[in-house]
Amino acid sequence: MDFKKVLSRTTIVALTLSTLLFYNCNKDDDSPEEMGETETPTYTANIEGIMAGNCTTCHASTPTNGAPMSLVTYNQVVDAVNNRNLVSRINSTSAPMPQTGRMSATLRETIERWVEAGMPEN
Q1: Please, where are the H alpha helices in the chain?
Q2: Would 121 be classed as within a structural domain?
Q3: CA-CA-CA-CA dihedral for 42, 46, 32, 60, to nearest 10
Q4: What does DSSP assign to residue 60?
């Protein structure tokens, strides 16, 4: 067996596995990508998971890191949309929320579609 062929095969297998692992680790489990474009997002089915995965580190039941409000319940998120410019903040490029970096365009668009649909809970 030629050492270079074995090394080459090992490298190809390692790169393939690394690529698959990287893709799966970066895929948002809460991502509504499978949701149809005409489907209406709801808080329970879509928004609650987005908030939990992106916002509640700081905007928990007891806010931390200087967060001014909690984003744990439906009513809290609706209040943040209506009174605290939540949609503007998640779309901001100069002061994005979350502060660790903007959410994916897909998640931000889902929140916008939810707001445009009247913020249905279920």
Answers
A1: 3-26, 48-54, 74-83, 86-91, 105-116
A2: no
A3: 150
A4: S
What is the rounded CA–CA span in Å between residue 51 and residue 9?
43
In angstroms, the CA 53 to CA 48 distance is 9
Closest CA to 44 of 55, 32, 58: 32
Query: What is the count of structural domains for the chain?
Result: 1
What is the span of the domain harbouring residue 70? Answer: 39-116
Does any domain span residue 53?
yes
- Are the C-beta atoms of residues 110 and 84 closer than 8 Å to each other? no
CB of 51 closer than 8 Å to CB of 69: no
Task: Give the chain's mean pLDDT.
Answer: 82
Answer whether residue 20 shows pLDDT above 50.
no
Token digits of residue 72? 């744990």
pLDDT in tens, 67-93: 999 999 999 999 999 999 999 999 999
54 falls within a domain: yes
